[in-house]
Write a sequence for this structure.
């Protein structure tokens, strides 16, 4: 589904990713862990197509297409979803309106019909309930005045609605208490399927107690220095980055 | 290239050149010589066949104006205007006195048709079957060319006619109310307007009458180097209701055109006036050349108890806007509202806002101002809310929101508040948001393209104000908002 080869990327002329390789097959859940500044968020942003990140070398193929040739919204319509570390607030635009607009925009790019309002409402209500999102919250402007937990749940709601094939979760656990973390993790787990893959970016092992990865990668200085199964995360929690880096 | 960077380069190319009302009408005009003297004032008055009292009134206004200086406190910059280099009177040469629309110069009829304003009543009736009809007063340069549905309105007792006609036909009303809200010497432009105004609309709604249709005036400046000075007077007697809309367009010209209007509204006990403006004068080109200087004084006087006035404006045009539609809340329990969307793009400069002067007890006011700046424009909200000592239990709510697109534009908010007694409650909220690369990225990641994202955000931002426009114009205004910002992102 996703194949990253020798990816090199920079921000403001500073090289962040230095030859990253990663292959994700359908149905797999991958976790990327690493110290601050290792390039975790850069990877997420490059995948989604944020302009500020420049790709200097390497290739990315997504569903056998050259991802780097696609615009941000085309990538989204093809199933790339980024759950933001810091979701954006948009005053004046009701959350419900935003959900509907984005859903229909993606459908349009894919040449599908727009969803009728009753069908859409039914779908949103069902998914929102699952995430403890109240109808009142859906009427509020997108993310305006939302708590950290509400913002993250709202990201997951969008993910449930848009049903992407690749979910990239950028530090989704930051700013969440245990209860909120569980709700978010339940949401993510409900999306696990043989056709859908996930890339979970996190600092801590904690999230991985709830969303169990198939693979764990350790990213340091823009390269994956070690890969393993879920036990690698536990090892990391025990020994710290320093020892892992020294051993690598 | 980042979206915002693109914005800046795109904005440099656009306009403003998208302005779709920029055509000129080639027509024979009857003009007074350039410049302003007592003789010109006499010429205008004579052209209008005005009574002696009106001429005297104009001359005294002219003398006042001669002693006044242009205001310079607004946050706008422009070269000094040479008032001697302007025409103060330009009227289409009529073939005959107008008995019916068939006598109207076909070129003018065509002009309004191009602007999407049908002047033939039968066309209106055919066009909007079943929908509420709108009576139109069309003003071409200095004169009113036609007013529709006059007879139907007269049946309800409503007077809707060019002000020049009102001076002839209803002198008692004009004498009683003209300059009673905006005194001649109120400011430089109101004095100038009083001396040389050539036309405008006159509306009188008698006691207890709800005006049976929307009234509207469309202003068109066609002639080069011509000032347009219109004067509008609206009187709502006790318990009367009226909704009035004005629309403005002008051709694209390299020189600046001056538009200095005065609008006065008098509202008596329990009466209600809703005044909406869709201002789309030519804003100048992408280099900042040309465009209309829009220096306007608009004021409503809630003279009676529980009188209500509501100003709604969508300002997208003009090179420079200097305009503060205000409410004098004199009658106890009266209410004033101001809803504004001011959009500046290219090199446009806007200094606009409102004044809520609370004189009566239990008076209420509400200000919702939405400023959107793009390109290299400057957009200022300037407002005042004041309460007299004797005006107890006054309430005001003010919300001033600014939205910036790109990083070469600016937004300023200058709210003044003066409470002279302790029972007043003023609430003020202000926000500034920006459509920057992060916002665009977020929307695009969810599948929206740049145009869709900007439209969604801008419409959400303006929603509260757009909702206040009469239904027939809300859609038009929403489109106008989109056109004005077309190409403002990459």
């Amino acid at each position: 589904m996703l194949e990253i080869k020798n990816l090199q990327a920079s921000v403001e002329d500073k090289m962040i990713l230095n030859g990253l390789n990663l292959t994700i097959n359908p149905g797999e859940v991958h976790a990327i862990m690493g110290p601050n500044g290792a390039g975790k968020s850069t990877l997420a942003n490059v995948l989604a197509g944020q302009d500020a990140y420049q790709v200097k070398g390497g290739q990315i193929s997504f569903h056998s297409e050259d991802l780097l040739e696609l615009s941000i919204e085309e990538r989204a319509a093809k199933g790339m979803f980024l759950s933001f570390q810091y979701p954006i607030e948009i005053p004046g635009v009701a959350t419900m309106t935003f959900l509907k607009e984005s859903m229909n925009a993606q459908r349009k790019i894919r040449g599908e019909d727009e969803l009728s309002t009753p069908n859409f409402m039914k779908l949103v209500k069902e998914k929102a309930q699952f995430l403890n999102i109240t109808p009142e919250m859906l009427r509020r402007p997108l993310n305006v005045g939302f708590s950290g937990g509400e913002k993250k749940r709202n990201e997951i709601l969008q993910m449930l609605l848009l049903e992407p094939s690749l979910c990239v979760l950028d530090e989704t656990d930051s700013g969440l208490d245990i209860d909120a973390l569980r709700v978010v993790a339940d949401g993510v787990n409900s999306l696990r399927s043989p056709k859908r893959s996930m890339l979970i970016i996190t600092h801590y092992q904690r999230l991985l107690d709830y969303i169990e990865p198939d693979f764990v990668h350790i990213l340091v200085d823009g390269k994956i220095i070690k890969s393993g199964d879920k036990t690698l995360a536990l090892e990391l929690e025990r020994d710290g980055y320093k020892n892992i880096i020294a051993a690598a | 290239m980042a979206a915002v960077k693109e914005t800046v380069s795109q904005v440099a190319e656009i306009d403003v050149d998208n302005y779709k009302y920029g055509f000129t009408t080639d027509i024979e005009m009857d003009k007074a010589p350039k410049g302003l003297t007592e003789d010109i004032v006499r010429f205008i008055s004579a052209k209008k066949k005005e009574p002696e009292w009106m001429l005297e009134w104009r001359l005294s206004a002219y003398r006042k104006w001669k002693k006044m200086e242009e205001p310079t406190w607004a946050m706008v910059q422009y070269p000094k205007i040479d008032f001697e280099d302007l025409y103060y009177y330009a009227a289409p040469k009529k073939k005959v006195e107008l008995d019916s629309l068939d006598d109207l110069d076909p070129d003018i009829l065509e002009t309004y048709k191009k602007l999407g304003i049908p002047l033939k009543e039968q066309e209106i009736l055919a066009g909007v079957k079943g929908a509420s009809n709108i009576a139109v007063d069309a003003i071409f340069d200095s004169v009113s060319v036609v007013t529709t549905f006059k007879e139907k309105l007269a049946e309800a007792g409503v007077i809707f006619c060019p002000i020049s006609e009102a001076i002839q036909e209803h002198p008692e009303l004009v004498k009683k109310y003209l300059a009673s809200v905006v005194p001649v010497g109120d400011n430089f432009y109101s004095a100038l307007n009083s001396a040389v105004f050539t036309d405008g609309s006159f509306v009188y709604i008698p006691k207890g009458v709800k005006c049976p249709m929307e009234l509207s005036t469309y202003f068109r400046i066609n002639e080069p180097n011509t000032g347009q000075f219109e004067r509008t007077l609206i009187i709502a007697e006790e318990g009367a209701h009226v909704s009035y809309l004005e629309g403005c367009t002008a051709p694209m010209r390299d020189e600046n055109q001056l538009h200095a209007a005065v609008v006065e509204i008098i509202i008596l006990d329990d009466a209600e006036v809703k005044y909406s403006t869709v201002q789309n004068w030519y804003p100048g080109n992408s280099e900042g050349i040309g465009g209309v200087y829009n220096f306007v004084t608009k004021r409503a006087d809630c003279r009676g108890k529980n009188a209500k006035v509501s100003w709604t404006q969508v300002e997208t045009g003009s090179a420079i806007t200097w305009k503060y539609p205000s409410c004098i809340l004199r009658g106890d329990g009266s209410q004033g509202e101001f809803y504004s969307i001011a959009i500046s793009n290219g090199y446009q400069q806007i200094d606009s806002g409102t004044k809520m002067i609370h004189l009566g007890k239990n008076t209420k006011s509400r200000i919702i101002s939405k400023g959107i700046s793009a390109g290299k424009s400057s957009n200022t909200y300037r407002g005042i809310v004041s309460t007299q000592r004797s005006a107890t239990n006054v309430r005001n709510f003010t919300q001033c929101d600014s939205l910036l697109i790109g990083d070469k534009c600016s937004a300023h908010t200058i709210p003044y508040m003066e409470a002279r007694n302790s029972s007043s409650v003023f609430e003020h909220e202000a926000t500034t948001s920006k459509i920057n690369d992060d916002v665009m990225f977020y929307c695009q990641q969810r599948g929206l393209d740049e145009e869709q994202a900007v439209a969604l955000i801008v419409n959400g931002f303006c929603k509260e104000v757009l909702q206040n426009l009469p239904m027939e114009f809300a859609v038009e205004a929403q489109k106008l908002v989109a056109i004005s910002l077309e190409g403002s992102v990459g």
About this structure: The first strand of chain A starts at residue 2 and ends at 11. Chain A has a mean pLDDT of 92.
